[in-house]
Amino acid sequence: MNRYTTSEVSPSVDDPTEPHAGHPVQRVQAGAVLFVVIGTAVAVTLRDPHEPGSFGVCPSLLLFGSYCPGCGTLRGMADLTSGDISATVGHNLLLIPMIVALVAWAVLQWLPRGKARRRFLPGRIGPTWVNIPLIVGITFLIFTVLRNLPGSELAP
Amino acid sequence: MQKPASYLVWGILTTLFCCLPFGIVSIVFAAKVDGAFASGDYAGAQAASQNAKRWAIISAVVAVVSWIIGVFFAVVIGVSLPDTTTY
Predict the structure, then answer these.
(1) What is the ipTM of this complex?
(2) Model confidence over B16-38: pLDDT tens digits?
(3) Which of A36, A131, B28, B76 is the most exposed place for a label (fewest CB within 10 A)?
(4) In angstroms, what CA-CA distances link B21 with A140, A152, B11, B44?
(5) C-alpha to C-alpha distance for B87 and B85, rounded to whole angstroms
(6) B76 touches chain A (CB under 8 A)
(7) Helix A24-46 with A73-81: angle, nearest 10 deg
(8) Are B14 and B63 in contact (CB under 8 A)?
(9) Residue B82 to chain A, least CA–CA distance (Å)
């Protein structure tokens, strides 16, 4: 099976012939992450998301009437681009940690193998019992519940 | 034998930007991939991988559809109620 043509297979982290730290599929994901982050930053400077409905309505708010873990992202990004960190945190507590984590991960995928230490490669972060999807999922769920409580400080 | 992709990044992006519980479902399936693979359940890992991908796509599609509906209603309300000052 050719690893460059199958998108169903994730990286062999020990493959010495791969010049980059990330598998080709993950480097595409990394590109998508950087495109979303930079594109969002540009979009919120062109159009103010603090104006209600200026970017449409969040599907969760529209369909279920409750905030999702991403609500406040656009307003937070707008405040971040104008340097107002406390307003960013007020709109979405997880926004800055998510940007840092996703951008760091994305950049790592494009580093040459030699520059990225083996233990930082995908699947090598922490001991094997550290389940990153589980941690992310539980964090999102708890955050979503907390910010939807009446009068919550975490609401966007 | 290579480990199937968990599509975690797509799950995170669709949860944050497509905002739907389906993104969470994708992350839940992503969480099952590693465990199943580690315990030797290769078919289960592959199935969880496919489900993670499927729910990320569903989340993205539903989000795009709801944005279209949302913009449509915003335009309709904006046109039909020109005196309204708020959205």
Answers:
(1) 0.71
(2) 888 778 888 999 999 899 888 88
(3) B76
(4) 10, 20, 10, 23
(5) 7
(6) no
(7) 70
(8) yes
(9) 16
